[in-house]
Amino acid sequence: MAEENTDGEAVEARVSALLGRMTTAEKIGQMTQVNAPGGIPKDLQSQVQAGQIGSMLNVVDADTSNEIQRIALEESRLGIPLLMGRDVIHGFRTVLPIPLGQAASWNPDLVRQGARIAALEAASAGINWTFAPMIDISRDPRWGRIAESFGEDPFLMSAFSVAMVEGFQGDDLTSPGTIAACAKHFAGYGASESGRDYNTTNIPENELRNVYLPPFNAAVDAGVVSLMASFSDLNGVPASGNKFLMNDVLRNEWHFEGFVVSDWASIEQLTDHGLTANDKDAALEAARAGVNMEMASTTYADHLAALVEEGQISIERLDELVGDILRAKFRLGLFDDPYTDPGKFPELANIEHLAIARQVALQSLVLLQNNNEVLPLKRNALDSVAVIGPMADAPYEQLGTWVFDGDPDISQTPLTAIREFVGDRATVNYVRAMETSRSRSAEFFEEAKSAAAKSDAVVVFLGEESILSGEAHSRANIDLPGNQVDLVRALSETGKPIIAVILAGRPLTLLNIVDEVDAIIFAWHPGTMGGPAIADILFGAESPSGKLPVTFPKMVGQVPIYYGHKNTGKPAIAETFTHIDDFPVKAAQSAYGMTSHHIDAGYEPLYPFGFGLSYTQFSYSDIHVSSDEVRLGEDFIARATVTNDGDVEADEIVQLYVRDLVGNVTRPVRELKGFTRLRLQPGESKTVEFELTTDDLAFYGRDMQLLVEPGEFHVWIGGDSDAGLQTEFAVVAD
Ligand code: BGC
Q1: Which of 37, 148, 499, 663 has the fewest CB neighbours in a 10 Å radius?
Q2: CA 305, CA 302: separation in Å to the nearest integer?
Q3: What is the C-alpha separation between 245 and 249, in angstroms, rounded?
């Protein structure tokens, strides 16, 4: 600790000394980030020499990066190194599953290792800063960027937020191979109205603090170097000009000592939002709010000097904003060594990195349905298998969104992996059947059907290409696109066992295929090693263990639908899905109850948060809390016994949920408060213990104070958010 303090003090001294030597122009230079893909043109070099640039994004070539750092260090007056940013979102050359898929592993330790290899690979190319993790709570599968997030739940998201920050940043920011993380997008971006990207968000402060902010708070506590301001308008004040977010919450309440970068031109866009009249006002609002660095647009470079001159921005304010950036550069050790030497790093996409990618993909696969235990396929009892569909052999598509540095040529596709897995023991009958997921033609359906008819089992790879999710790629209809449902129907006419494997960047509405297929594996966009991971699950080399990090609706009209909803005054009590067809005309308004549900969709999702099947069955018993009455401030333990009742060794994700029955503001019907991945042999039982304190039950009440109120709590421990054994306890005042 003492050493860290000294380090901290030394850094502060270096920051002030440097600030003392800087001109206003040089300070503003530090606040300017420019895009420099594909080399550094001469004018950019002279800007670096003149100290007009603090950071670049999208330089991914080690030599170029080293040369530009050399110019900054040796040819600029003050020799300040550059932050080299890049979107390393789910891997660099080795592409891991999309973050939403990684979240389905419920394995933060593994995800930490994934971020670690991404950092190593990126650092070898001269990158010292990634724009990840994206930790926007996402409760709307229409939103294309749900792919980049870890799902709907603040507790789960916070766990991954910490794991990613730790993976990228390691425990020594100065060591080669660690890079600065950037928690984004601060804040509330995932609540974009109708799931349309960049759309308005309106989030009451209470909801913001209870749901959207905790993952960011967790990242700050984990020492994240930077945050990125969101594009979105939060309650009338776009994030990039939002002082409440950047200053009051982030700096004053959380004591964040890193820096905030805008999103791409998001300061300039304050004028498009209608918050400011022009670029100069936009720069003023952003600087006042606390955005340290401007990405892509140049309102700071163009107007901050005048704003300082006019006294609208004080020198002290400017120094605070610049100081935060310099502090990060010192903490990263860039003043001592900003260079990279690729020769000293492990090779890109080496065997160990690919093995981690495969493991993450394996644990991210969610088995949603397995009628008559059609899976796993018995390799030795199978003479032939049909592999059908547009996603079976799509090396680029399986990588998902944000894969600037990925290489489809090294993707191992499901088709290749299945062929390898069965070897010459069985025939693989492959028909792509559709050019893309969106094809409307049924031209090859007959061929697909005959391949199915002559095979013992049919594995159909469906979903959506990578371009259908990600930034600015929201969908209003989240059914399987194109003719895919018809393809499934055609295949099901053969009467063969049908296994659907779905590769997608978001939850899809699958109601129209669940009765047509025997099994469904949801594979997300599983990355470079998706194929072997899928083959391992199909053939039972490993039991599926992924669990949904987000609720799957039956129909898009149910959205937003998430497990941690409020009870309402008229909660639905029984699933009422089919009623619309039964309503006699002119029936009494109250004939079918007056509860909170859709008459054509009921109130339940297709698959709840936390859900995922296994090749074995787990049972839960003996749930209890260490004390019926827990005093405020005390620790307590919630425990249950989990048994593997089947005959396959497997992992189970054990989940702990709590409900606070009465609150100063109404509380969700369930909240995740703990989870663990447990491996059990056939017949084996283990007792799982979750250690909590009453602080873990805290929430922001009416006056935005963090509260734990005495009262009754329900507790569930089980395998998803809808299941589990229930017990209860009370929190009592001291
Ligand atoms: C995205 C960010 C990303 C940035 C830089 C923006 O359009 O919203 O998430 O980090 O571009 O590429």
Answers
A1: 37
A2: 8
A3: 5
What pLDDT does residue 575 have? Answer: 67
- Among positive and negative, which fits the CA dihedral 215, 220, 225, 227? positive
pLDDT of residue 387: 98
- 301: nearest Cα among 27, 46, 21: 27
Amino acid identity for residue 605 in this structure: P
Residue 337 annotated to the active site:
no
169 C-alpha to ligand 1 centroid (Å): 20
Mean pLDDT across the chain: 96
User: What is the whole-number distance in angstroms between the Cα of residue 471 and the centre of ligand 1?
Assistant: 8
Kindly state the tokens that stand for 169. 């940043």
- Rounded to the nearest 10°, the torsion over CA 611, 613, 618, 622 is 10
Cβ proximity of 521 and 540 under 8 Å = no
184 lines ligand 1 (CB under 6 A): yes
Name the pTM for this structure: 0.98
Ligand 1 midpoint to CA 263 (Å): 6
- Substitution candidate for ligand 1 out of 127, 138, 168, 263 with most atoms within 8 A of CB: 263
Instruction: Say if residues 707 and 698 touch (Cβ distance below 8 Å).
Output: yes
Helix/strand/coil (H/E/C) assignment for every residue in 658-692: EEECCCCCCCCCCEEEEEEEEEECCCCEEEEEEEE
Q: Which amino acid is at 581?
A: D
> From ligand 1's centre to the CA of 264, what distance in Å?
6
Q: Are strands 237-238 and 259-261 parallel, antiparallel or unpaired?
A: unpaired
pLDDT at 5 over 50: no
- Beta strands 384-388; 427-431: pairing state: parallel
Question: In this predicted structure, what is the pLDDT of residue 4?
Answer: 41
The pLDDT tens digits of the residues spanning 584-598 come to 888 888 888 899 999
DSSP-derived 3-state class of residue 102: helix
- pLDDT band, very low/low/confident/very high, at 574 (cuts 50, 70, 90): confident
Residue 87 CB less than 6 A away from ligand 1? yes
Find out whether the beta carbon of 257 lies less than 6 Å from any atom of ligand 1. Answer: no
Question: In terms of Cα–Cα distance, which of 716, 624, 702, 703 is closest to 667?
Answer: 702
> Ligand 1 mean position to 410 CA, how many Å?
26
Q: Which residues pair with 718 in a beta bridge?
A: 655
Closest atom of ligand 1 to CA, residue 131: 10
Rounded Cα distance, 328 and 257, in Å: 9
Phi first, then psi, for residue 194 (nearest 5°) are 60, 15
Q: What percent of the chain has pLDDT over 70?
A: 99
3.90.930.12, 2.60.40.10, 3.40.50.2300, 2.30.38.10: CATH of 618-732: 2.60.40.10
Query: What is the C-alpha to C-alpha distance for residues 14 and 78, in angstroms, rounded to an integer?
Result: 13
In contact, 636 and 627? CB cutoff 8 Å: yes
R_g (Cα) of the chain, nearest Å: 27
Per-residue pLDDT averaged across 663-673, rounded? 97
- 3-class SS letters over 375-389: CCCCHHHCCEEEEEC
- pLDDT at residue 569 greater than cutoff 70: yes
Does ligand 1 lie within 6 Å of residue 197's CB atom?
Answer: no
Q: Is the pLDDT of residue 671 over 50?
A: yes
Q: Which of 684, 206, 193 is nearest to 474 (CA)?
A: 193
Determine which one of 136, 263, 324, 393 is catalytic: 263
- Measuring CA to CA, which residue among 718, 703, 671 is closest to residue 155? 671
Binned at pLDDT 50, 70 and 90, residue 448 comes out as very high
* Tokens coding 189: 């971006």
Helix (H) / strand (E) element for 652: namely strand 650-660
Helix or strand holding residue 460 (H, E) = strand 457-463
Cross-strand partners of 715:
658, 727
